[in-house]
Amino acid sequence: MADWRLKPRSGRCTRCGAPFAPGDSGFSLLTPDPAGEGYVRHDLCAACHAALPPEARRGASAAWPFTVPDAPPKADAASPRTPHPNADAVLRAALGRGDPRDRAAIYVLALLLERGKRLVERQMSRDETGRTVHLYEERASGDLLPIVEPPLTEAALPEVRQRVAEWLEHGVRTPVRVLRRPAHARRPRGRVKRFRRFAP
């Protein structure tokens, strides 16, 4: 989205530079970009956030607390890998594909991840076309993901759920463009002359 500068949670406080350790708490703020190009994210430790003047807090477009998660355990190389793709990776792959036909399935998948407490909604706004945009944050990585809310009807839900189930089962496949040779390249140029064979 052009309206957002999507950056993951910083590994250090953007004000004092102190590194964040697993289990540390802090606050994230979105403020308007002085250059007029969307928003800038600030990740502050608890002390720097408490030292902010009131006008700085009121000037933030959005603010929320965070806790740095513990590092995930390393996978055992001897253990078999699950054949089903990770739901978070599926969401990222679908967003990266950029197909407008995926919007309904992306929205439903984001709702499932929000219910599973793997995504948390930080802000809801409207873009320049009037569409509702939900700004989600991944709890594990701190990445911000803008999800457009599509016009979803009850009749379309079964098809959308089927697409989400297929993604979770097989992953998001990038469509392959088949390049066809132009008609003039497939046809021989000119007429092929056939010579009669005469008996001696």
Structure description:
With 200 residues, the protein is an alpha+beta fold. The protein has six helices and six strands. The protein has helices at residues 46-50, 54-58, 87-97, 103-115, 157-170, 183-186, and strands at residues 25-32, 39-45, 62-67, 119-126, 132-138, 144-148. It has a three-stranded antiparallel sheet with strand order 2-1-3. α3 (87-97) packs antiparallel against α4 (103-115) and α4 (103-115) packs across α5 (157-170). The chain starts with 24 loop residues before the first strand and ends in a 14-residue tail after the last helix. The model is unreliable at 75-84 (pLDDT under 50).
Outline:
The chain is an alpha+beta fold. 26% of the residues lie in helices and 20% in strands.
Question: What brief labels describe this structure?
Answer:
200 residues; alpha+beta; three-stranded antiparallel beta sheet; 6 helices; 6 strands; 26% helix; globular
Mean pLDDT: 80
Largest sheet: 3 strands, antiparallel
Q: Give the strand line-up of the largest sheet.
A: 2-1-3
Shape: globular
Helix content: 25-40%
Q: End-to-end distance, in Å? A: 80 Å
Question: What structural class is derived from the secondary structure elements?
Answer: alpha+beta
Cα Rg = 26 Å
Low-confidence stretches: 75-84
- Order of H and E elements: EEHHEHHEEEHH
